[in-house]
Amino acid sequence: MMKEKRFGIDIDGTVTCPSSLVPYINEDFSLNITLNDIRKYELTEALNIRPEQFAKWFDEKEPIIYANSPMAEGAKEVLMKWKEDVELYFISARRKHLFDITKQWFHEKEIDYDYIELVGSHHKIEVAQKYHVDLFFEDKHDNAVSLHEELNIPVILFNTPYNQDPVPKGVIRMNSWKEAQIWVDRWLKEYK
């Protein structure tokens, strides 16, 4: 059976829990923060850490963090339900050298996928366009807005403390994967 729709899905903060970095930041920078303390996507600004210091730290910790990231609550169940009817294209800003770690994480979590692309930057528009994505799932505010505006597709933006700027009508805020499932299932029925 040919699947009619293709979903573009960010990984970090979307499929993985948005607080995945917090324990590592607390331990290595001697902080005691929660996800609610992170009010900006750019962590160096949010935490007042020098960019070069954070970049060096992130280069070292990135593989460990990604290998051990917990899954966002409800993500697996919803994605596996959709997998029967739609293609799942995971499009992430992760750098390409992390592909094996990423693929291993999907294998360990038993999440099926049709395709994974690590873009190496937050510029996902070209990749989403190339693969004719019909709907996108994101946690980064400006990515969600630009994907919607450039591609004229709906974008599900998972609510976090760091993405609270206003959004246009085609960017739909969701608080959970279960909530997203209800919206998406209704949207899919409209297009059948």
From TrEMBL:
Top EC category: hydrolase
GO MF term set: hydrolase activity
E.C. number: 3.1.3.-
Gene3D superfamilies membership: HAD superfamily/HAD-like (3.40.50.1000)
Transmembrane regions listed in the UniProt entry: none
Transferase is among the record's keywords: no
Keywords from the named record: Hydrolase
UniProt cross-references to PANTHER family, sorted A to Z: NUCLEOTIDASE YQFW-RELATED
Recorded family membership: Belongs to the 5'(3')-deoxyribonucleotidase family.
Protein name as it appears in the record: Nucleotidase
